[in-house]
Design brief:
This protein is mainly α. The protein has six helices and two strands; from the N terminus they run αββααααα.
């Protein structure tokens, strides 16, 4: 895993901070980085955190089937995608939640209240968008959520 850790160190040392489509701060590096591994030497599991085999197999099945509904994962006690959602789906709900809370309080929201609305909208959104498995099955296709 030294190669992986070297890539992380390179990103932290040479990367620049920017936002992505979800508004989450992201470290970007010019030209990206490539991780190569000979599968004859085993599976390249990242060992910097615990990875229960059931979680790995569940997520892999999710990808192979091309599923984009995070409820499928949650029903199988796999919660690694819980904090994510398709911005096209959750942003309108986020805006509704902000407006409702603003109307209820009768004033502008502070940063923490906005963050809570965002997290609630994202957590309630089942649609993950065209994640890995969907792209594997529908390369260059037009994405539409189908729960």
């Amino acid at each position: 895993m030294k190669q992986y850790l070297d890539i992380l160190e390179y990103c932290l040392t040479n990367g620049t901070l920017s936002d992505n489509r979800t508004g989450t701060p992201t470290i970007r590096i010019p030209w990206g980085a490539t991780f190569t591994h000979d599968m004859q030497n085993g599976f390249p599991l990242i060992t910097t955190k615990k990875m229960p085999p059931k979680t790995i197999f569940t997520e892999l099945e999710f990808f192979i089937k091309g599923i984009t509904d995070k409820q499928w994962l949650q029903e199988r006690k796999c919660h690694i995608w819980d904090e994510w959602g398709n911005a096209d789906a959750w942003v309108p709900e986020f805006e509704k939640k902000q407006e409702a809370l603003r109307a209820e309080l009768g004033k502008e929201l502070n940063t923490e209240q906005i963050k809570q609305c965002r997290n609630q909208a994202m957590n309630e959104c089942r649609d993950l968008g065209p994640v890995y498995g969907w792209q594997w099955r529908h390369w260059n296709g037009t994405y539409q959520f189908d729960p």
